[in-house]
Amino acid sequence: MSKKPISNRSFNLNVQGISAGDHIELKAGTYKEPLIIDGKMGTVTRPIFIEPDPGATPGSVVFSSELSTKAARLFANQVANRRQRAGYYPSFGHLGDQAMLVLRNCQHVVVHGLDFRNCWPGAIYLDNCQNIVIHNVRFHGGTIAIGANGIFTHDIIVQHCHWQQDPSGSKMWNRVPWGRIHGASDNSKNPGVDLKGDYRHWDGDFFRGWDVGGNIIIRNNTIRDAFNGIHFFNSIDNLAPGIDANTLTFNNGRRSTANVLIENNDFIRVRDNVFEPEDHAWNWVIRHNRLRDCYRPFSFEFERAGFLYIYGNTGSFDTPPSSDMSDEDKERFPQSEWRANESLFKPKGRQANEGSIYVAFNSWYFKKGKGVLPKFGLGKLVHVNNATQYKDPKRGRFFGQNGDKQNTGPSDIASELIAEQSRFTRRWDDYGIEMNGDVANDIHFPDNYRALGYRIGLAAKNASPNFSDPIGTTTTPPDFTSSETAILKASIEFNIDFPDGSVQTVPKELNVGATQSKGVYSTIDRLFEFLPVDDWLPVLPAPRIS
Length: 546
Hints:
Blueprint: E1 3-6, E2 23-26, E3 29-31, E4 35-38, E5 48-52, E6 61-63, H1 69-85, E7 99-104, E8 107-112, E9 115-117, E10 122-127, E11 130-135, E12 138-140, E13 144-149, E14 154-159, E15 162-164, H2 171-175, H3 179-182, E16 205-210, E17 214-219, E18 222-226, E19 230-233, E20 258-263, E21 266-270, E22 275-277, E23 279-287, E24 290-292, E25 298-300, E26 302-311, E27 314-317, H4 327-332, E28 345-347, E29 357-360, E30 363-366, E31 381-384, E32 387-390, H5 413-419, H6 428-431, E33 434-436, E34 439-440, H7 447-451, E35 461-462, E36 494-497, E37 503-506, H8 520-525
Parallel strand pairs: 1-2, 2-5, 3-6, 4-7, 5-8, 6-9, 7-10, 8-11, 9-12, 10-13, 11-14, 12-15, 13-16, 14-17, 15-18, 16-19, 17-20, 18-21, 19-22, 20-23, 21-24, 23-26, 24-27, 25-28, 26-29, 27-30, 29-31, 30-32, 31-33, 32-34, 34-35
Antiparallel strand pairs: 36-37
């Protein structure tokens, strides 16, 4: 092992000779030029470390691009405008490879203890890399904190990191309308890019993957005041018309965005989506995460997907966004583009999902909003043993704005598709949807919804979970414990299917919702044997507390 001391004056020249086991030690200072490391290979027992010098105080090794936030905003608006005029979606995140730390064709590299401040567009970018650890890194501002690209990028661990994209803690959530960050002229009635008034530099993610192979672990992080959380694109698995994925010899056509574990993270005021696998995703486990005031956490607009397991999560939806918009923005944007009504899922239309999507043992609290499943459908959804509490049960909308209304037109498919634009589908047989064992205090749940055609199981109950403190304070987290008989030891038994064809039974008489007795989750967590392992993880310093 050798140590390679690096200062912000000697930089890229000194990293060319690094090899397995070396430590790149960055001296205190601000680094304004990208650090690019290409083709460096550590090993399981001798990884390469990129870390602060041992004498540097925490937070004193900072990467920062030369763009000010004001300049980055103008640049992003200009890029988005050009893309819109060229016929593309007016986004900015495709420039995420322009990052301040780039690892390309690397293996077994550990990045820890660094700070990235206002790195526009990107902070860290991984290209064709394997066995990379990003640990205890702080991100402030920037469009994309971590970008990962390529089908040969896999086995990535991101842990104990912190990202706050909007330093004000309120402007993105309360004042800036959604359309100024991500709207497009052909997206509903959005007026399109405003070169002076938009905030396209915020149109990014904490973690963005482009066609990555998989085996990704994202855990114990805090993401706050950000536009998106975890966002994967998968164009690798697009199939030609008429091709049956089950006839393909290579992993049944499931090559990208597979085997992903997202656990024990905090997401606070995420303006758009928290979990967003685009188009295709397989073998995801999303568990034990805590959401506070996130606009639409689960964006599941799939073409094909399956074997997703969402359990043990909590969410408080107490303060709707867009509460302090300017009069100018209220006039510029139609109310539908304020995106002020929070909901849990953002599904698409009919999906050819190849495995079930399990939503179980979660707890949600809504002050107001569109509810749990607001429109369209979610193929092969299994929704069981969740607890949902509305502040005003009369305004609960479990199945969306018109979920409690009788069909007034003909009962043909065309009419149903139109109706599904403002409520969740009632064609559960077509979608393969199951729901049972849930507890909710929406006044229409479950009996009125059943009468309208929602085939909710008989074990579902109308009752308030009466969570102890589902909102919390600025210093104390929400408390989703409950002493209600409808919750305690009231869950039903159900089976879980796994990608290899095996089946496991989850026993009855656990608690409904996320809060369980000691030892329950350790048993359930062990069921997912397809998840990536972390036994190659080296010994790492303890994360910073604040």
